[in-house]
Amino acid sequence: MTDQIKPSPVLDVRGLQTVFHDTQGAWPAVDGIDLTLYPGEVLGLVGESGSGKSVAGFSVMGLIDPPGEITAGEVLFRGEDLRKKSEEELRRIRGIALAMIFQNPLSTLNPVLRIGEQMTEVLSEHGHDDSAAAASLAVESLRKVGIPAPEQRIHQYPHELSGGMRQRVAIAIALLGDPAVIIADEPTTALDVTIQGQIIAELQKLQAESGAGMIWITHDLGVVAELADRIAVMYAGNIVEMGPTDAVLDHPRHPYTLGLLDSVPGDTVPGAPLRQVPGNAPPLSQRPLGCPFHPRCASASDICRRDMPERETDAFGRSYLCHHPVSQKVDP
Amino acid sequence: MLLYTLQRLLQSVAVLFAVSIAVFLAVYSVGNPVDLLISPEATQAERAAMIAKMGLDQPVWAQYFTFLGNALQGDMGTSFVHGIPALQLILSRMPATFELVVLALLLASAIGIPIGLWVGLRDGSRGARMVMTSSILGYSIPSFWKGMVLILVFAVWLNWLPASGRGDTVLLLGVPFSFLTFDGLSHLAMPVINLAIPNLALMIRLTAAGASEAVHQDYVLFARAKGVRSKRIIRRHILRNILIPIITVLGVEFGALIAFSTITETVFAWPGMGKLLITSIYQLDRPVVVAYVMLITFIFVVVNLLVDFAYAALDPRVKLVENM
Cβ(A247)–Cβ(A241) under 8 Å? Predict the structure, then answer.
């Protein structure tokens, strides 16, 4: 993205909060996040397990079941707040304009239904009555994601396909309705490394062709470095740092982002111990007061233990939540 | 597929053979039918003649081989008591049991599967917990007691339904059935309900367990993310997956009910196979008991084969492969 006048965002999430209820109370898994996504853009949503990144994705889709509940915020999709829509209105948007790809391709497809039916039902459930046309659209979509002999595949069952092929089918399903936004929840995590690369390249190409905005949820900084235009780093339900990919990865301002970057093996001297962020992400019910990262942060001070930091935005359009941001390195 | 079927049928011959030995020996050791069949006033000579006529003077292995030889020619022996071929006697009782069991299982599935789905999809809600608790009751109340209560309420107090017998029957393909006449249906009502209740409870629990597990599967969430209506998700995605255990249990229950609806048939004086079995055991009518067990074994073998076919039809991951 260059600095031209930006088009209006296709997805604008404001103050989204999703809590999970238990007998002790309601615990926010997503604690008031703001996200914007522009057409044709890839936003990398990065975080550890339990940071709330997947919950954020499902909250945008409106697919939060009890004991989870979306308690606050707006999800503006093409200017309309999805949270104000009825379940039926949401259903009509899902799968067509707003699509999602899941993490584990081995479990996302129904084992007892043919690939063809699992594809065409997306169309038939959205008022597409011509079943022959739907079938040829399904074949076309399979061809687009690089599945050989798609005419035969639609008659097959999921177990007859490999994991990578099944994820391609899931991608083909997501692309069927020519979506404006695709939410990809760790779509390559469950795959072999060689297949990962192919799927990433394929999705990137297809997303660029279709002009859809894509939120790529992952814990893998290497992946987002490759494909994201912007990165949002999540920690304990908050987006602790967000900005253009280069700025965030080259000059992180939040100590957590810095810690994540340091724990990527790539830059370490072979044999030297891998640096890591000390401690573990706090469980949902034991989030500390103040900045949630302070127990693991080397530069934590009294204010961090007391007050949640305000969001700061710098000149590069990058924002962060930190009382003691990492000082800007001077470019070598 | 054909090879598989042939192999299974061959196996069933072996099973039938093994069962024939077991049941023959078991019946032989239970008691001597002569004392029950011959009047106490008979002379010793008459007695000996009778025993010889029935072949009971032979050693057990000789009796067995005579039986086996006849059985291979389709002759399962003649009832001591009724004087007609045992198989014919049992088969004449079969339609009554068959319609009772089919109606009971249809009723149990038609009500149980929808309720089970409702419960499974509302896991943990108050209504769902109530249904689950009462289903334990439905499953554990003894059949004879339930039957007596039904008779007491609907036949004795309310006088709505007849307490015993088959009522009017109509010939369908030459076989008498009760379910086609109003009188027959009124006779069927109570025994069918009595048989259906435990199976209803079973269907509810089975469907609920399956549905509450399936509803949390990724493919259901993915279907929702695809914008599929919940009606279709339940019908196509969830039900298709949980039908597999349901069909298995229905098959086993079908076999078991055909064979052993004895209590219900006795309580309601329903002239079916189960009632015949009980009477024949009391009267030490060996040929009938042996033929009965053989027939039931055969039915179980066939039902299991059909269940396997249903399995393969419902779950594409199942392939029926013959093992050589």
Answer: no
